[in-house]
């Protein structure tokens, strides 16, 4: 297995745990709903990326390892979900992990399929935020990518790191880890200090 | 016309009736909204399946019969929708019918395009639940596939019946009807007795 | 640049302004959310069209001018968004402009890629209403295409004008402007007089 595949499956697993725990906490779903939301969260970003790249059928459907990883993640989350009041922190951390890993692997796959520099950064970001956006729409929340403390920006940074490194001739695992680490750090700092990007001049009152 | 096409058009018609009646009942839409929601409900699952199979453009756009069937179903529902309090039962029954037919035809098409056993069962299920999920998102409900009494499970069973039968060498109309019948029976029993899949250990309080 | 490209980029710009201002007004988002919603509104319809045509990757990802136009529109809207109470009118006008331009360019592209008469009209309409539908789902509103005063009908008319003209052998810029003008006129009249398509017989009470 290549480094990219390992990181991709790790991201899939993290998002499956996140989506499934979100289903338990936010919508009190049964086991089918929990595993389904976990799988959609885990596989949605990669499917969006592959549709936009025209790389169909998506890797998640031609490669069984993604489906199994996502399903197992959802089932583990279902089994372990004990007290709802303890779920908030793991949900947020698994989301940040998946975001960081997918930003890097999404951008890497886009480059491998011949996308340009800008498109690769954008597709890495879409891979990272896509699954969580589908998750939020399905449980009727305004998606994190639109509303939350620094969500798309760390993904953009993580994707940009691997794209710039690849342009400079370095496609090793080191820069993938640097990109994912940078994304994770910014995201966790953003959550910890409740940082937000600038708001519009007219938007002074909170909704 | 092949058996698969007949069943597929029947499923399209049932889902168009269901989606259009849902538009009348849940969102009080005008005729354009009613027919639009009927068509999205009827065609959405097959479009999702074809995108995931990379079979583009989707059959619903290269074959006029699907578009016409969906539009006619929506118009009929608009014309017949009399009293709102009588719509709950037909909405549920048409949804169960569409679910059963699409589980079988979706899995059959996936196999015909070379998908593996597991993927075919999954794609049959996605075909069955996809249109209703789009419908629920558009009228702002938590999708049935996440929340409802036994919704994805009967579709999985129906799809699995035809996939297993095909693997054993039998691709006739009989097993398609057995699969659709099994799905329909489980779904109607689930609704009648309000059965649900197991809920997570922490999810003791209802939302 | 061809006429079609100019009209397409104008439509992209109008929808980017509309989506971004909607983000400022309806959901009080930060700059990332504002630009993201602007870009999704501007690019969503064309992406849906290209997926349904099987023309992948979508033009918006292989042609940088769309991405830049959408991003610039979103940033301009962010910078100019002064007082929320003044935004309602420009939001509606930019939406009507994008709707009219995309109905025409979407139908033209569908014909250029070999779609039939009916499919081209439908794909023009989907291009026109697709981005706004994604926008409404993301900020949790019932989509305009389902609920609003004459929204899909003007798009259908605008698309039909260019498709009929092309069938009669005339593919010049004149009929594109006539189609877009007809769509814009009907839409603005519909908004001004709060016209609606007929409602179902049972739907007498408002939600």
From TrEMBL, chains A, B, C:
The keyword Membrane applies. Residues 6-80, 93-166 form the Glycine transporter domain. It is found in: Cell membrane. The chain crosses the membrane at residues 64-80, 92-115, 121-138, 150-166, 172-190. Keywords: Cell membrane, Membrane, Transmembrane, Transmembrane helix. InterPro entries: Gly_transporter. It holds the Pfam family Gly_transporter. It comes from the Bacteria. It is a multi-pass membrane protein. Belongs to the UPF0126 family. This is TRIC cation channel family protein.
């Amino acid at each position: 297995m290549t480094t990219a595949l390992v990181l991709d499956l790790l991201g899939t697993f993290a998002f499956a745990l996140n989506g499934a725990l979100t289903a338990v906490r936010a919508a009190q779903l049964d086991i089918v709903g929990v595993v389904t939301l976990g799988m959609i969260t885990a596989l949605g970003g990669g499917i969006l990326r592959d549709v936009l790249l025209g790389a169909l059928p998506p890797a998640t459907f031609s490669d069984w390892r993604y489906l199994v990883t996502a399903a197992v993640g959802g089932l583990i989350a279902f089994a372990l979900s004990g007290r709802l009041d303890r779920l908030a922190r793991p949900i947020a951390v698994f989301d940040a992990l998946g975001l960081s890993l997918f930003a890097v692997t999404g951008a890497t796959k886009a480059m491998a399929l011949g996308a340009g520099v800008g498109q690769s950064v954008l597709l890495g970001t879409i891979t990272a935020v896509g699954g969580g956006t589908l998750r939020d729409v399905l449980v009727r929340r305004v998606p994190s990518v639109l509303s939350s403390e620094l969500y798309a920006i760390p993904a953009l940074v993580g994707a940009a790191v691997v794209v710039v490194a690849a342009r400079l001739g370095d496609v090793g695992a080191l820069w993938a880890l640097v990109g994912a680490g940078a994304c994770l750090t910014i995201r966790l700092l953003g959550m910890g200090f409740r940082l937000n990007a600038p708001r519009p001049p007219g938007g002074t009152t909170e909704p």
